[in-house]
Amino acid sequence: MMADxxxxxxxxxLIGGQQTFQSLDNTxxxxxxxxxxxxxxxxxxxxxxxxxxxxxxxxxxxxxxxQGIGIWGNNVPAGWAFDIINFVWWIGIGHAGTLxxxxxxxxxxxxxxxxxxxxxxxxxxxxMCAAMFPLFHTGRPWVAFYWLLPYPNIMGVWPQxxxxxxxxxxxxxxxxxxxxxFWLVGLVPDFGTLRDRAEKVAMKRFWAxxxxxxxxxxxxxxxxxxxxxxxxxxxxxxxxxxxxxxxxDFAVSIVPGWNxxxxxxxxxxxxxxxxxxxxxxLAIPIRAIYGLKDLITMRHIDWCAKIMLTTGxxxxxxxxxxxxxxxxxxxxxxxxVMLWRFFGPYKYxxxxxxxxxxxxxxxMWSPKARRHIPTVWFVxxxxxxxxxxxxxxxxxxxxxxxxxxxxDRMYYPTLWDFGMFTGTIGFFxxxxxxxxxxxxxxxxxEMKDLLHTLSHGKARKVAVGAKGGR
Amino acid sequence: xxxxxxxxxxxxxxFDSPEAIIAAANAARAAGYKRMDSYTPFPVHGxxxxxxxxxxxxxxxxxxxxxxxxxxxxxxxxxxxxxxxxINVGGKPLFSLGSFVPPAYECVILFSALIGTIGMxxxxxxxxxxxxxxxxxxxxxxxxxxxxLCLEADDEMVEEDATSKFLQGLRPLSISxxxxxx
Lengths: 470, 182
Fold this sequence. Notes:
The complex is a heterodimer of chains A (470) and B (182).
Chain A: H1 21-33, H2 41-67, H3 82-106, H4 116-137, H5 141-148, H6 164-197, H7 201-211, H8 218-251, H9 263-289, H10 298-328, H11 332-343, H12 347-359, H13 367-370, H14 373-400, H15 415-438, H16 444-455
Helix pairs in contact in A: 1-16, 2-15, 3-4, 3-8, 3-9, 3-14, 4-6, 4-15, 6-7, 6-8, 8-9, 9-10, 9-14, 10-11, 12-14
Chain B: E1 6-15, H1 18-30, E2 36-39, H2 47-51, H3 57-84, H4 97-123, E3 147-152, H5 160-168, E4 174-181
Antiparallel strand pairs in B: 1-3, 1-4, 2-3
C-alpha cells in the first residue's frame, strides 16, 4: 500500500490500495460529509493558531488605515519593501496551482488529478494575500481605485496604460478571476456527487444549489470537457504572463539590479519553485491527517520534489546571471549593488538566500531524500524562506543604494510590517483549512476517470482526467 | 398505465461500467434509436461518438470571447489615451501599441474565460434545478458509480413495452420508466 515500502524502484502507483469508484468517493467525500473527522487535534490547533494571525492581520490593516503607511519601515529611497516583497512572494506561490491544474493538464500528466483541486485553492488564497499588499500600500485603497482601474471618475483622469504597474493590475485581477472560474468549474460535478451522497435534506439542498442541477449528462460532459481544456489552454499563457508582468514592474525601471532582461523567465521559474514548495508544505500534513495517502502517493511527492529541484536550478542560474550582468554592464551603480549584496550590511540575508535556494534544495537529487517525508518537508520550508529572501535581496537591497550615494539609506522593517506579513500567512492557512473541511479536497470525478483508465491499462494512450483525449 | 397528468420522458437502463454503457449506446443507435442521453459519474471517452452526439459550440464561444476581449481592451486604451485624455509621456505615441499589448492580452483571456464558461453552462441548460431524469430509481448513483442510458420519448421509435424489451436484451442492472409532468 504505502509506496515507500516498495523501495526506490519508481513503480509507486498513482492510486494506492484496492480502490473502486465507491471507495474513492468515500475517501474524499467523507472528509466533507463526516464533520466529526475534523474534531481531531491537528485541525483544531492549526485553525486556532491561524485564526490568531488572522486577527493580527486585521489589527495591522486597521492601524495602517487609521494611521497611514508611515507605520511601515519603507521610506525614500526604499519606497518598496515588505509590501512588494510579500506581494511577489504570494503571487509566486499561487503560480504552482495554475501550473499543476493547467499546464500539467495540457501535458496530459495524470498524476496531477489528485493535487489539482488543492493547489487551485492554494492559488486563490495566495492571490488574495498578494492583492492585500499593493492595495493597502496605496494607503487609502478606496480612493486609489481611479488610478488602478479604468472607470469614469469625477476627476476625469484615467490609469496610465504605458506603465507596468497598470499591466500588473490587469494581470493579477484577471489571474484571480480566471483561477476562481477554473476552480469552480471543476467543483460543479463534485457538488453533484455530494448532493447525491448527502443524507440530511438541508445538506442535500445546499449542495444541490451549488451543483446547479448537474446531472452528469454525457452531452453536458462533452461541452464541459471542451470548456475545461480550453480554460487550461488559456490559463497557461496567462500564468506565464502574470509573473512576467510582475517582473516588468522592476525590469522596466532603471534601478540598478532591476534593469535586466533575465527577470521575466527568472521570476516565472522562481514562482513555480516557491509554489511547489508550498504545495508540498501543505499537502504532506493534510494527506497524513485525513488518510489520503492512497491518493496523494509517494510518487506525487517525488515528482513535485523533482520539479522543485529543476526550477530551483533555473533560479540559481538567474542569481549567477544577475552577478554577471552587474559586472558586464560596466556601470558603477550596477557593480556597487552587487558588492552591496555580497559584502554590505545585509550580506547575511544574501548568503542565507544562496544557502536556502542554491545549496539545500540540492538534497533533492537523492531519491532517498525525495522519499523521506521529513526531509522533503524541511527542504520545502527552506525554499519558502529562500524565495522570500530573494525578493528582499531584489527589492529593498537594490533600492537602499542607488545612483546618488548621498541618498543611500538603510531600510529596516517595523513590527507592523511583520504583523501584516505573518497575518497573511495566518489568513492563508486559515482559508486552506476551512477549504479542506468544507469542500472536496481532491477532484472526485477525475480520480474516478483516472482509476478507470489505469485499471484498463491504457494509461499511456488515453488522456486522463476531464480532458478530451480522443 | 401512467398516472394522470404525466407523460413518458424515457426508458432508462442502468449499467455498472463505462464499457457496458458504450456498448449499449452503440446497440441502441444500431437499432435505430436517435434521441438518447446517458448519465455518468465522469466523462466517458467514446460515449459521445457512440451516442452520435457532436457539438463545437463551446470552443467558438471561447473564441468569440477572446476576440471581443482583445477589441474591448484596445478600444478602452485608445479611448483613454487618445480620445478622452491625450497626454504626452516622454514623447511616446499617444497610441503606444507595444505598451498596450499586455492589458489587452489580459482582457483577451478574461473575456474568453468568462464568456466561454458562462456559455458552456448556458448551452448545457444549467442551472436547472428540476429534470425528470432525477426521478429514475437509484439515479443518485449516476454521480457516483453507475451509468444510465435513457432512450427519450420524443423519439418516435420509443414505445414503452418494445423499448423495455430491447433494453432488457442489453443486460442492464435495472430498467425503469421515467415520467415527466404534463
